Amino acid sequence: MDAKTLLRTGITDTPNLQQLMRSAVQSWKAHVCMVVEPDSPSTGDAWRWVIKDGHLGLHGPGFIAYVASSRKDLHAPEEFDAPLLAEVRERAAAFSIPLTSIRMLMTNRSIGYDAPGEDVTHDPQLDGISAALGREEGVIEAQALTSTRVPLRCNFISRIASPPGARALVPFVELLGTTLRLFLGLSNEEAAQLGNLLDSGESAPARWEQADLFDG
């Protein structure tokens, strides 16, 4: 069983899908993650895996994070307001996500700050840039490193993240974990729930069968 096979089954969000994804999130890989707002308010459990319109995603409070092996496998992205530099730095620091480059927008000017391979999150020079710009600079894009130091290009306007290289793949746990913690202003409770969902390492039963996916 892999993600492509799963998408061909025609299921949506049965209980056994949730059980399967507990282990799959550790081993399955994707190239891109796109975070969107759901069409309707969440019902039932706030955090669950879904398959919608042929796309696999993690549904959380106020968002769905779709994962795919190619950008062309996903629909057109939504557009979001750019978060302030202080917000992005705070999120990165809270979850120990290294940022090696940051691109900001102030009115009609784009400003880049980077140090290839080095974490710039805590650089005092960024404090000076923020002060000079009146602390109103929005972050358009940043390059973040996952827990295994895989670089991800994170676009805050489209809320799309992917590694360099069209065929590069990243484990779901790293792609989703880095993307959601950086794109969203998670509360402490939400962060704990995400960590439990992605990092539990729980395995699906050894005797799981595909037919069981349709139960429930």
Descriptive account of the structure:
With 216 residues, the chain is an alpha+beta fold. Helix content is 28%, strand content 26%. It has six helices and eleven strands. The protein has helices spanning 3-7, 15-27, 85-94, 124-132, 172-183, 188-199, and strands at residues 29-30, 32-36, 48-52, 55-60, 63-68, 99-106, 109-114, 138-145, 151-155, 160-162, 170-171. The strands form two sheets. Strands 3-4-5-2-10-9-8-6-7 form a nine-stranded antiparallel beta sheet. The protein has a two-stranded antiparallel ribbon with strand order 1-11. Strand 9 and strand 10 (160-162) form a beta hairpin. Helix 5 runs antiparallel to helix 6. The model is unreliable at 201-216 (pLDDT under 50).
SSE inventory with pairings:
Elements (H helix, E strand, L loop, with lengths): L2 H5 L7 H13 L1 E2 L1 E5 L11 E5 L2 E6 L2 E6 L16 H10 L4 E8 L2 E6 L9 H9 L5 E8 L5 E5 L4 E3 L7 E2 H12 L4 H12 L17
Antiparallel strand pairs: 1-11, 2-5, 2-10, 3-4, 4-5, 6-7, 6-8, 8-9, 9-10
Helix pairs in contact: 5-6
Offer a few descriptive terms:
about 220 residues, alpha+beta, nine-stranded antiparallel β-sheet, two-stranded antiparallel ribbon, about 30% helix, about 25% strand
For the sheet with most strands, the description reads: 9 strands, antiparallel
Number of strands: 11
User: Can you tell me the residue ranges where pLDDT is under 50 for at least 5 consecutive residues?
Assistant: 201-216
Beta percentage is 25-35%
Spatial extent as radius of gyration: 18 Å
Tell me the number of helical segments per DSSP (H or I, 4 or more residues long). Answer: 6
Sheet with most strands: strand arrangement:
3-4-5-2-10-9-8-6-7
Order of helices and strands: HHEEEEEHEEHEEEEHH
What separation lies between the terminal Cα atoms?
Answer: 20 Å
Structural class: alpha+beta
> Overall pLDDT, averaged?
85
Outline, from the CA principal axes? elongated
Q: Helix content range of the residues, please?
A: 25-40%
